Amino acid sequence: MLTDVIRSRSSRKPAAPKRRARPRIEGLEDRLVLYSTLGAQWPYASRITYSFVPDGANIGGYSSSLFATLNAKYATATWQLQFQKAAAAWQAVAGINLCQVGDDGSALGVNGNQQGDPRFGDIRISAIPQASGTLAVCLTPPPVNGGTDAGDIILNSTSNWGVNTSYDLETVAIHEIGHALGLGHSAIQAACLYAYYNGTKQSLNTDDVNGIQSIWGPARSDIFNSNGQSNGLNTTAANLNGYIGSNGQAAIPNLTIGKTGQSEWFSVTVPSTTTGTFVARVQSTGLSILSPKLQVLTPSLSLLGSVASANFGDTVGITLTGVTAGTTYLIRVAGNTAGSAFGGYGLLLNFGSATQPLISPPYTAVAEQADLGGGSSSMEAETATVGDYTAQGDALEASELRGRRDAPPPPAAGPSAPGQGSTSAAAIDPGPWSSHGPAKPNRGRPASAGASTAAIPAVHQPNRRPSHKAIDAAIASWKARGLLGPSGS
Fold it and tell me: Which residue ranges does the record assign to the Peptidase metallopeptidase domain (predicted)?
């Protein structure tokens, strides 16, 4: 039997040599962090403002027609609401406050502060004719662009704008404000920062949230909800007696509603100097786009007054009469989900007879500086030309198909602003892997009046392949994040 076993084994053919495994690159789609950033960030997160540019303002040699374009289809309050909701989406998840301010109609790129210019918002929203298929262009925030042009958004006035239908204005506003806050394009099609318009997107994707928080961090907590402190319940209400001055007034700035369902509770006792009237106000006006909600209650939680606003940035108040010294009241502050439920605010208390002024906005003025360029590890800075104005920026295309086909012939020249000439536009490549160096010989100042070349506000060069430099940088970034092994596998 042993012989048979030996014979049986020895009669087997020798095993074939093992083949060496070929190295392969594993698909990483589900593991990659595919947002990109622009290497740009506003100096002050406490108050980043935006404004709507009035019609007639000089935007690269064109007269802005934002109001005429959108008022032709919607009431002003309706289309501005789409931008307010878009700004609120970003404010809700990041450590920033956004605030709508007025705009005096100065020309794009006029000399002034890169942030905190009193004439207009840090992010200015305008509209001029642009190349067919381009929905909007956003000029990169500082320090990539160092002047007043930083963060400005220019819509295509010839696009067929809609509300809750293509081209959905809120969807485009979310995308462009994301750029204005420092995000580049995402390679995830479901992300709001995807380089092409591919449907209505009125809420942020996880990739969008991760991207914006990589720049600004999550929504911040105030002094009453940090360092072990919490005033989220009536039983842990923060006592404000120490804030009351000799005039019977208290002003508490830098407060924040930053979490879903959050309320802040405060308690206050009427001082001996009272005039018999107690006025409590919550102010987000000039501070953020929080829609404030205020309640005043007794310690036993009997409701004495309640008020709320759905406006994106407002001040609400409650007045109680016949109050007596030594009486304690509870104050509850929250965000109104009918508007913007998140953002910064100030609390004002007045037991005196004098009128109490609103809290002044934080100081955010930063003078104009030289452009520094920028770009994430996976994307070099792009050059955007709007009319006769050139700066670093990104564009949103109406469809990916257009971005892949041959460039269309340039459109007919649009009208120039009175007294302004124009020059032909440089190209913008909007793809998420686009890569070409900036071609900006100066600060982006408009060409001198009298230039005769027809203006093409924004033209894109499709079919651009990523440069070797961009590919190498992307791979290095993935390795640094632990998403790719040292050998590339």
Answer: 38-218
